[in-house]
Amino acid sequence: MILKDKVVVITGASSGIGAATARKLAADGARLVLIARREERLQELAQELMDAYQTESMTIKLDITERESVLSAFKEISESYGRIDVLVNNAGLMPVSYMDKLKIDEWERMIDVNLKGLLYCIAGVLPVMKNQGGGHIINISSVAGRKVWPGFAVYNATKFAVTALSEAMRMELTPSMNIKVTAIEPGAVATELTQTITDQDILESFSKRGGDMVPLAAEDIANAIYYALTQPDEVMVGEVLVMPRKQM
Predict the structure, then answer these.
(1) 228 and which of 74, 181, 192, 237 could share a cystine (Cβ 3.0–4.6 Å)?
(2) In order of start, what are the domains of the chain with their CATH numbers?
(3) Which residue among the candidates 53, 98, 120, 155 is catalytic per the annotation?
(4) Largest Cα–Cα distance of the chain, in whole Å?
């Protein structure tokens, strides 16, 4: 149990990749802090982990776009546990739309959650990791941080930023502060991510794609996160791109 007693903070933990990662890491003995806006879902997951692994998890209801609330939450975590070993920066939104629809509120929300919220969490954890002499930050980017598609422009912009940010962070933090940084880049995953899409033309285009591609399960990404976290101290996993076998 490589991660036994490691303190791991997971944002967006109430469903999908976040919840799957919580299950994977709890099975390895990690001490979890579960963060999301949906408190009831967090409580259900915490109870599930207790029943399955006798793991007591801290749950925090939090909107990561609220900077002061995020910084306060990380202060509470560090005071409660005395350290934070891992941050899984997973919370994200994908209300993609064609640019001429001018869904400006959705553009802003993606930027606020996918980029600014991620940065707030980094700001919350970085002083703790620096003071304790190391840690590991996992930023969930996307294949959309490498490749663009019509309708995905703003989402692409946020995820390209996360991928670039992660590499720059690695260069700054890993050699001198022993803080590893990994960008995980999922392809199509069967999660709730598409449920925020309001552009009917985008939804129609999705329905017409068809084909026989089987999307990834959230557990596939949890396995990639686990791989990055469990490498030897001298091994740095900078990027992990995980895609369905038939995704182009």
Answers:
(1) 237
(2) 7-242 (3.40.50.720)
(3) 155
(4) 52
